[in-house]
């Protein structure tokens, strides 16, 4: 990644430097930066991104379709053959789309072909905002779109992709929100205090498998030292937190039954807003618990 | 099963008929019934059972040990070879202990041998009050007992076994409690009403596997038409209820996200009291839920 | 109250007996019973009531207005002077409307006059379904109605009044629901059991005062031996349950602070459905509680 | 109040300046500062306070009693006549103890006399950590103490009083905690978001009256812009938060009944730890709510 630019430097740059500095934000489309140049100066990074998106959205439909066609297939031959633009490669790699099994690859090939036959464009999705499970669900769902709605959906995803790239490239005021956060809090309402030292696991729940994302313990305030997820978009998907409250309560209440009523408490929930804050607390006693989407 | 006797008939029977009528309640030990005869009449079935247990517990330790030794090994050769008393066979069969895999059989053989070497008696447990997972946990735990505590534990299990047999054999007032109950209730606190039509699954959670015990739907009162478990002892073990609230709330609130915060809600809990009532409700909105051991 | 009739006897009665038997259900309007006679036999008490209401609702508007005009003013001169029909008297007396202070009487007089000036009919409301607070709120609210809506509201109230009278007069299958129920349940989720012996008070909350309706204690199941309210319509109004959990938890957990976090827990709630079931439980620990409208 | 000193300056001061600087922290007892001088330098303000308290606690019992006797009666003649030390006056005034009704004054006189007769010292309590209700409860309770326990209680209160004075007088690292905090949070689990714009009232609940302490509204995060209480010790006592959720939910759900199930939700709770953090949230839907002591 090149050094980060500042928005001030961009506002001061001449046309050639401006376009060069934004190269690759919109893949194979230097004209997007060209068309945004006139709108300088930009008060915020968000305003710069909106101007660039506006440059795309104001084009006639045929040019918008041609622009989308410049994007690589998802998990397609280009990903396998290493022919994608460097940034596309690393973004898809984060989801493991560059190392699919043959069966998974075949499924993506089938979906890509069906999608291309229906819409005449490649399936574009901001993979950094998705679990693999969610990518497949979105693929199936968007195949049911009318062409106009689907072109809008593809462009909205390009908005997500380029917003992320721009925030990483350009430093300045008014950066658009691209990061979400998952946090938790374990409260012991038997004793009226935070529950310290409770083992917490976070799983990603796929259609047929579950993957352990991390394991940690609650601190003296009943929270985790770091957010469970954060620093970038949350991936749309289904998750499960497992709180190992059995040992915690057994240490406090020796008279509890050997097979406690509550031991490993799973909280399963969906994340639909990658830039949102999901606070998912556990309010528990040895005989009850509650959770909610908090703030 | 023979026709059920009445307690009144037993109270009126002569010694020979009395002993014959109670044959097999205590395996290979007609002397237990003999010794209880003098205590007639019995006001309740529970009093009859207590008298029989007292006949055992009042014997010297050597006789108590000899009495326990008359019981078959758990999941042992006798079970495999069909040599057990008819009632023992059907009781163990309910847990699948007569059709173990070779590896499981080997594990039980090992535990049986270790237990026999340590205590000189077979491992006795009332299998109808246990999941297979709980039998193995009890086996491991009881191996750590002192001999006196373990003899008491074995006799307590014989108390459970014979209480169940007696209640099935003898009709009369004051039957001891041998049945537990698991019930649920789904309440929709978004709308302030019972949640009707919610799919509910009940799983038994073993050490390494989960087994679907049943699947049902909530009725207009948010309950299930029948208790989830009941009619006999609950099996000590770990369970999971899964409530499919996603479709229920989606039908009521079309604006909910496609990937809802709550879809399949699992409640995992332990049952430690086979004769207890476990009421495990779900109080839910699309964004929160709570549960507790109710009554 | 005369002996209760049976629906079967009514179905068999001749016209004169039929009308006599139903005398007073609809005040000063024997023609309602007359007009219903032809619809015999009635399968249910509810069907009889519906037929009688239909006899009213099918009349031209002038006759419906004249019919409503036969009803006494609420808390009016007739109530004070003892000139009302016997049943009206006892119904209004239940709410204390026959013994208002002079100021309250003046307020009702003012509302009656304003209402009569606006609609040309007396204000009719089924007082047995109302707290005094709710009567005044309804008075104010219905003064804002258009005349047609208000005539419908008055006739709906006459439906409530006569339904109650009919159910008390006639025994038979299919009685319409006229009784609601308020119940509670105190659950101790610190110990995982019903909370026994908790003092519970029920107050009616008026605009400026609160009246203790009853005081009781929870039984071994954490419930009250009798429903808190029941046996007739619940009165629309605002209520408060006060649960004295302080002494209960102090007895179980001596280490709690002298000034406990929870001592008297008030749950304030409105009742809007006189024939509904309001289950208002308290799920509590010394440091938390929850409630909901249950079922 | 004089300018605040720094701990560093105190550590550098000579004996005379040191004693002068701490004048009045312990009323009428310059020897406390004198005795602490030798222990310089103090790493923290807390260490300085502990050294001063140690100077008191290490004296023989007769001297400790004499020291306590230097304190003014609570709400006594000195308070009325303006004869107390300036700081004592303002501290008692905060609780309104300088403007009691004649009946209240008489009650305090009676308690003071009984206490003095029993223990031979004035009743000392850190009034800034108490509601008036709590002062009276403590008075009654401490009258039941054995003399030794009561002397310890009085000295502990002097510890609280002087800790507060010292923290206000001396700036420096390691100040002892003297401030508590009461916060709230309203979460709408019907919509899965913070409840904005909910009117919140905080009352102090006395034995026979309730006083409105403040009224505010929740902000966009469902919290209040400022802690409800804070900036000093919380007063031990009973409080009630009233959340006006009726209008909030009615605006979101027009189909709710006119007499809503939840309108004004009271949460009544005790505060026992003046230096603690009491987080008392409301998790609500139109048909349910929960609260707990959070963190």
UniProtKB/TrEMBL annotation, chains A, B, C, D:
Catalytic activity: 5-hydroxy-2-oxo-4-ureido-2,5-dihydro-1H-imidazole-5-carboxylate + H(+) = (S)-allantoin + CO2; 5-hydroxyisourate + H2O = 5-hydroxy-2-oxo-4-ureido-2,5-dihydro-1H-imidazole-5-carboxylate + H(+)
GO BP term, pick one: allantoin metabolic process
Keyword GTP-binding: no
Pathway annotation: Purine metabolism; urate degradation; (S)-allantoin from urate: step 3/3
Top-tier EC class: lyase
Transthyretin/hydroxyisourate hydrolase domain residues: 182-294
PANTHER family attached to this UniProt entry: 2-OXO-4-HYDROXY-4-CARBOXY-5-UREIDOIMIDAZOLINE DECARBOXYLASE-RELATED
Protein function: Catalyzes the hydrolysis of 5-hydroxyisourate (HIU) to 2-oxo-4-hydroxy-4-carboxy-5-ureidoimidazoline (OHCU).
The protein's name: 2-oxo-4-hydroxy-4-carboxy-5-ureidoimidazoline decarboxylase
């Amino acid at each position: 990644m090149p050094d980060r630019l500042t928005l001030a430097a961009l506002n001061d740059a001449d046309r050639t430097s401006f376009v060069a500095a934004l190269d690759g934000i919109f893949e194979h489309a230097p004209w997007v930066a060209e068309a945004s140049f006139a709108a300088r100066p930009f008060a915020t990074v968000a305003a710069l991104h909106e101007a660039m998106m506006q440059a795309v959205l104001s084009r006639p439909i045929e040019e918008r379709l041609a622009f989308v066609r410049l994007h690589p297939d998802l998990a397609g031959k280009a990903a396998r053959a290493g022919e994608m633009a460097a940034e596309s490669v690393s973004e898809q790699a984060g989801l493991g789309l560059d190392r699919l099994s043959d069966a998974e690859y075949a499924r993506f090939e089938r979906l890509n072909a069906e999608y291309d036959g229906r819409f005449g464009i490649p399936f574009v999705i901001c993979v950094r905002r998705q679990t693999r499970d969610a990518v497949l669900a979105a693929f199936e769902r968007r195949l049911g779109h009318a062409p106009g709605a689907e072109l809008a959906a593809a462009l909205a995803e390009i908005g997500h992709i380029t917003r992320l790239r721009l925030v990483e490239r350009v430093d300045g005021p008014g950066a658009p929100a691209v990061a979400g956060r998952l946090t938790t809090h374990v409260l012991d309402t038997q004793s009226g205090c935070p529950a310290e030292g409770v083992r917490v696991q976070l799983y990603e729940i796929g259609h047929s498998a579950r993957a352990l994302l991390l394991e940690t313990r609650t601190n003296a305030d009943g929270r985790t030292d770091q957010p469970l997820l954060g620093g970038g978009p949350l991936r749309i998907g289904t998750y499960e937190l497992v709180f190992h409250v059995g040992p915690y309560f057994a240490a406090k209440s020796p008279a509890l039954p050997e097979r406690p009523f509550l031991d490993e408490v799973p909280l399963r929930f969906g994340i639909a807003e990658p830039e949102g804050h999901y606070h998912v607390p556990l309010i528990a006693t040895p005989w009850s618990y509650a959770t909610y989407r908090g703030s």
